[in-house]
Specification:
By secondary structure, the chain is α/β, with parallel strands linked by helices. It contains two helices and seven strands, in the order E-H-E-E-E-E-H-E-E. About 25% of the residues are buried.
Length: about 130
């Protein structure tokens, strides 16, 4: 039934203006807005993998990682994001280094949130 459908994912935010600035300016993604559809944002990711970001008045941040950004060099990615004002999440009991990176338990990974509190990650895939 859905073998050839172009399915896509989406998540909510509480403020699409702040979200658009974060995704476009801080993360450097290509983002479009459709005001005719209530201000829906589309994150245009490589590989033609668009993600819908929609406003929700009673938004609650996702309790799981909604986007994973694979990188070749996690130290460089974390340093660049930190320089752009991104703060990396610290989780009790997680063996994170001073940069917030977990290493040695699968791919190296570090988590951060968007302005709406949704969890994202950078993970090193070589």
């Amino acid at each position: 039934m859905f073998r050839d459908t172009r399915a896509f994912s989406g998540f909510s935010v509480d403020d699409t203006d702040r979200a658009m600035a974060f995704y476009a300016d801080t993360l450097g993604l290509r983002v479009s807005r459709d005001d005719a559809m209530g201000g829906l944002l589309t994150l245009h990711l490589a590989g033609d993998r668009d993600i819908l970001v929609y406003p929700k008045d009673d938004h609650a941040p996702a309790t799981y990682t909604v986007l994973n950004f694979p990188v070749d060099d996690i130290d460089r990615a974390v340093a660049e994001l930190t320089a752009r004002g991104v703060q990396f999440a610290r989780y009790p009991g997680m063996p994170q280094d001073e940069q917030g990176i977990v290493r040695g338990n699968g791919p190296a990974i570090a988590w951060f949130t968007d302005p709406a509190g949704n969890v994202m990650s950078v993970l090193e895939l070589k």
